[in-house]
Prior knowledge:
Elements (H helix, E strand, L loop, with lengths): L1 H17 L9 E3 L8 E5 L2 H11 L3 E5 L14 H9 L2 E4 L8 H5 L8 E4 L9 H7 L19 H18 L4 H27 L5 E6 L3 H6 L3 E6 L9 H13 L4 E4 L6 H10 L2 E4 L8 H5 L4 H16 L1
Parallel strand pairs: 2-3, 2-4, 4-5, 6-7, 8-9
Antiparallel strand pairs: 1-3
Helix pairs in contact: 1-3, 2-6, 2-7, 6-7, 7-12
Amino acid sequence: xKKSFLFSFIVTLLIAMTGCSTTNSAPSxxxxxxxxxxxxxxxxxYPLAFFAHEIGGNKVEVHTITPVGAETHDxxxxxxxxVQINQADLLIYxxxxxEGWVEKIKNNVDPQKTGVIETTKNLTLHSKKQEKENxxxxxxxxxxxxxPHVWLDxxxxxxxxxxxxxxxxQKDPSHKSIYENNFDQLAKRFDQLDQSYKKELSQxxxxxxxxxxxxxxxxxxxxxxxxxxxxxxxxxxxxxPKKLKEIIQLARQKHxxxxxxxxxxxxxxxxxxxxxxxxxxxxxxxxxxxxPEEIKKGxxxxxxxxRNLQNLKTALx
Length: 317
């Protein structure tokens, strides 16, 4: 109770100090037309910001809370960002336990001013237990953590985008047709991406994919692949020696020549497996954020998803 009161007091104080400023140090997607009537939307991390921007077009101003290079699971908004979120029209977040800070903000925003949208609401989510059953991982573990990485599955990402569209329409019904038309175009791109994955991956005989951590359960389940994760749902969850031994044996038995890492990240324990089986490292991007170089090149959710597909094809040939 004291913490909640203190947080509310800090927010109130900062509002008084900062006025109506919406400056954000995190990368932002702003509409081409600056208009005070535009909806101000804060999204917890890149994919949701991208979806909101594509649907909202020049009727929204979208800010990404998690900055480039920060870990979405661990990032905490600054007090200034919390004030700005309190002044926004919408806060869009993933849910499924991805953003640990959300409950604190939800308890302090004015619901009449700021709509709070959980994009995984009403979606069927994987538990850690299901991940073990789906991907033949039988290491002893009694936790039931939910897998939050739904945006990597194009069809689940489409449902997240639809939830965002519905929130925009509810908040700004006068532009309903714009939001619905933009969403329809975005939905077609998700469907095309899904068809590309189905077509390309269904032709490959190999189905086992070794990943540095278990972020790809929805993606691999959708397309009939078997994710063999070295670490857990969080990249800092370390495997036991028994688990490492099982993965190395599996890789040798099935002649697996590639191990997938996140971009710019090769955890030490995963590198051990790579060295042990003489595997080639490949990137499987979790799409949690773009690098400055990718932004300059005009990369987005779809171009990087296609690059992931090409790397999967390389590994599974």
